[in-house]
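Ligand: NDP. Inputs:
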Amino acid sequence: MVVLVTGANGQLGQAIQSVSGIYPQIAFVFRSSAELDVTNLQSCIAVFEKYQPDYCINAAAYTAVDKAESEPEKAYLINVIGARNIAEVCKNNRAILLHISTDFVFDGTSIIPYTEEDLPNPTGVYGKTKLDGEKAIQEIWNKYIIIRTSWVYSQFGNNFMKTMLRLAAERTHLSVVNDQIGTPTNAVDLAEVLIKMIQFCQNTPIEVFGVYNFSNEGQCSWYDFAKKIFEINTIKIDLQPISSDSYPTPARRPAYSVLDKCKIKKAFGVAIKNWEESLKTISFIT
Ligand code: NDP
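Predicted complex:
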């Protein structure tokens, strides 16, 4: 079984690489943006012709949420045209596509966890391009699994956990917003779930294509998340909660984006760790 991973040097791509050795039965092909540009259809065709993947995990994305507001064309190119190109080559090669999307497709006005059936309504360019990317895939190829995830962190790439650890080394006090509620996702847990889904598709004739939510269990604010990061790493810092109003950003974030995971748990039988428990497994001081 050949599994192609795009955007392989990103946070999730590296997390998949870190666990790939546990699965010798899978021939992983990791391709960075330099080796496979998803915005270039010819580049996609050439890589698919060469490796003939049975599955493709599209971990390539434009993920700069605030910057997307000032460069929407670039975000669109990678998140929509890129997703469309990958769906096109998956279709032509009969490969199953696993594509990663985001909690930012929702506007955050809910007060209960979002299910896959809830109506998306992104509030910014990044969320809109990710939603349009989902739609582009759905129009082209029916053998897709779209996984919406949230607040991804790990020891790899750039993420909130690493930013907090870096800032704690530079400052004595820090303010973090406490009025945005969501769930952190350990990128390694996401990587393992993606592989579990592939194994499920490979071993059972049941059709499981569609949209799924995945994050760790539980919920917290960014302030709670920061507090836990410092607690686990025994970092003493004056940490203050602030409102989003006192920390304006170019892109408006959803105030609430907890994802309901019933569907993925039922369909694939996955057990999901609580976010605090999972955070403890990887926290370290950079
Ligand atoms: P990263 O930004 O760490 O990784 C994205 C990767 O995509 C980078 O390696 C980047 O390469 C690559 N890429 C950019 N443009 C192209 C291109 N044209 N062709 C091929 N590759 C390209 O993001 P994450 O790993 O954190 O995110 C993985 C997925 O999860 C994304 O779909 C994202 O939208 C989603 N997600 C992420 C969340 C988070 O908190 N990080 C939250 C919710 C969803 P390069 O660096 O060379 O440009």
